[in-house]
Amino acid sequence: MSETLPEPIDDPETAPAAAPAPRPLSLRGRAFKGLALTPEPPLPEWLAGLDAALKRSPTLLKGRAVILDCAQLKPEPDALETLMAELKARGIAVLGIEGIDAVASGLPPLLVQGRPSDTVEIPAAPAEPEPQVVTSITVEGSVRSGQSVINPTGDVTVMGSVSSGAEILAGGSIHVYGALRGRAIAGAARNPRARIYCRKFEPELLGIDRLVRTAEDMGTALRGKAAQVWLDGGNIRMASLD
């Protein structure tokens, strides 16, 4: 006797799940600001100008999206690859290329329909400082109390004396052929080699470069004598000229 097998019943718990329908691919346009480099012939001169701009402002193109606009240069494929190598050597990452018909494989993509935006100002080259003219001043007589003689670029020579309450300030050295009783500051132009000379040492204050000594710090060993003052190892030194 034969038996008829029951037909299989679909069990929702054991049946394989149907594959989900693929989601449609979504493409969106997005605009970003970038800087456009526009090389011009002759290329070596343009690269020299680029180097000068990067020297004045090393962060000018650092971390920026850079577009290479070749509309004026119109380079051949080999020349374009050479230009890209030059830019890479300067740390410039090119996001895309525009202004030509096609680019070779391995280069950034071709961009079209770019719109001009604001111009980025490149820092101007700093002006060369004008050389200072070193001059010397000679005072034929004496410098009286309350008077000041200032020469920030050179020496000061006083043929007479410097009275108490008078002041001499020089970018270079100070020479006093009489008595020095006032204030004398030499080397005011950051000149540590400046010196002070006098025939009679009785100053109220001495200074060379940024160091000073008052009368209380000088002692009496040189008082009334011919003396010179200079810097030695960051210290003010004094000695007799006799």
Topology:
Blueprint: E1 35-37, H1 43-56, E2 66-69, H2 77-89, E3 94-98, E4 137-139, E5 148-151, E6 156-158, E7 167-170, E8 174-180, E9 183-186, E10 196-201, E11 205-208, E12 211-214, E13 227-232, E14 235-240
Parallel strand pairs: 1-2, 2-3, 4-6, 5-7, 6-8, 7-9, 8-10, 9-11
Antiparallel strand pairs: 10-13, 11-12, 13-14
By DSSP, the count of extended strands is 14
Percent of residues in helices: 10-25%
What's the number of helices? 2
Task: Give the CA-CA distance, first to last residue.
Answer: 149 Å
Structural class: alpha/beta
- SSE run: EHEHEEEEEEEEEEEE
The largest beta-sheet arranges its strands as 4-6-8-10-13-14
Tally of domains: 2
Bulk shape: elongated
Strand share of the residues?
Answer: 25-35%
Q: Any idea of the CATH topology of the largest domain?
A: Pectate Lyase C-like
Structural commentary:
This protein is an alpha/beta fold and 242 residues long. It folds into two domains: 65 residues, no CATH class; 105 residues, Pectate Lyase C-like (3 Solenoid), CATH 2.160.20. It contains two helices and 14 strands. The strands form three sheets. Strands 4-6-8-10-13-14 form a six-stranded mixed sheet, with no helix packed on it. Helix 1 links the parallel strand 1 and strand 2. Cell division inhibitor that blocks the formation of polar Z ring septums. Rapidly oscillates between the poles of the cell to destabilize FtsZ filaments that have formed before they mature into polar Z rings. Prevents FtsZ polymerization. This is Probable septum site-determining protein MinC. Belongs to the MinC family. Interacts with MinD and FtsZ.
